[in-house]
């Protein structure tokens, strides 16, 4: 048998992946739903296979292990809604950001809580959690504040400006532990109006504007 024949008989590398992008999104959604429901420790490749009606061998060929699958699911489901916000004023932008974050709190907060403990023991998982859920949202809020500074709405040396993203995202993560409920849209809008805007020297936009 010639070397050329041997090479031709070997399955090409691309044949390892038979999962379409649409199918991958279905699998990622199943993974994240299972994490929210039962936590990281209870998640298994077998459970994902059963939930998504996918062969377990297919999951292992594509992702190799549970941590790799979870990392892929986190990276593959980024939404980036905060980057699209532009109301023309910083106060309006921050209130819109509060609504967007509050709208996703029911999905994101349980996911963060489910992964937090496991992430502290897995540098790869912690990195994926920060890169997929935390840093993009912080960067988006920081960009809103920076744009407000550039427009002259907030003084460049305002000491509260650098803490806005930490305030918004921090209260979303903390409220379930402090009050036993998510930081929903109504709560986050009140938080921005009562704590964030005054610290920046801004007034809330008039109702309906």
**What is the residue-mean pLDDT, rounded to a whole number?**
85
- Gross morphology: elongated
Q: Evaluate the radius of gyration.
A: 22 Å
Strand content: under 5%
- Give the N-to-C terminal Cα separation: 77 Å
Q: Helix count, per DSSP?
A: 9
Please give a handful of descriptors for the protein shown.
elongated; 209 residues; mainly alpha; single chain; disordered N terminus
Explain how this protein is built.
The chain is mainly α. Helices cover 68% and strands 0% of the residues. It is built from 9 helices and no strands. It has helices spanning 3-9, 21-38, 45-52, 56-63, 66-76, 90-120, 123-150, 164-179, 185-200. Helix 6 (90-120) crosses helix 8 (164-179). It is elongated and about 55 Å long. Mean pLDDT is 85; it is low at 1-16.
Layout of helices and strands, plus pairs?
Layout: H1 3-9, H2 21-38, H3 45-52, H4 56-63, H5 66-76, H6 90-120, H7 123-150, H8 164-179, H9 185-200
Helix pairs in contact: 2-5, 2-6, 5-7, 6-7, 6-8, 6-9, 7-8, 8-9
Short description:
This protein is an all-alpha fold.
């Amino acid at each position: 048998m010639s070397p050329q024949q041997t090479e031709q008989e070997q399955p090409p590398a691309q044949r390892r992946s038979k999962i379409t992008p649409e199918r991958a999104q279905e699998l990622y959604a199943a993974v994240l739903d299972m994490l929210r429901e039962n936590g990281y420790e209870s998640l298994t490749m077998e459970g994902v296979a059963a939930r998504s009606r996918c062969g377990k061998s297919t999951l292992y060929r594509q992702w190799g292990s549970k941590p790799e699958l979870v990392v892929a699911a986190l990276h593959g489901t980024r939404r980036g809604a905060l980057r699209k916000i532009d109301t023309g004023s910083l106060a309006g932008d921050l209130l819109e950001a509060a609504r967007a974050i509050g709208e996703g709190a029911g999905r994101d907060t349980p996911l963060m809580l489910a992964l937090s403990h496991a992430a502290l023991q897995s540098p790869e998982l912690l990195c994926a959690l920060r890169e997929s859920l935390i840093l993009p949202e912080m960067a988006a809020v920081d960009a809103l504040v920076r744009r407000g500074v550039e427009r002259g709405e907030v003084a460049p040396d305002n000491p509260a400006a650098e803490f806005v993203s930490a305030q918004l995202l921090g209260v979303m993560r903390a409220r379930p532990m402090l009050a036993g409920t998510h930081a929903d849209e109504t709560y986050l809008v009140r938080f921005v109006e009562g704590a964030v805007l005054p610290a920046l020297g801004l007034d809330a936009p008039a109702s309906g504007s």
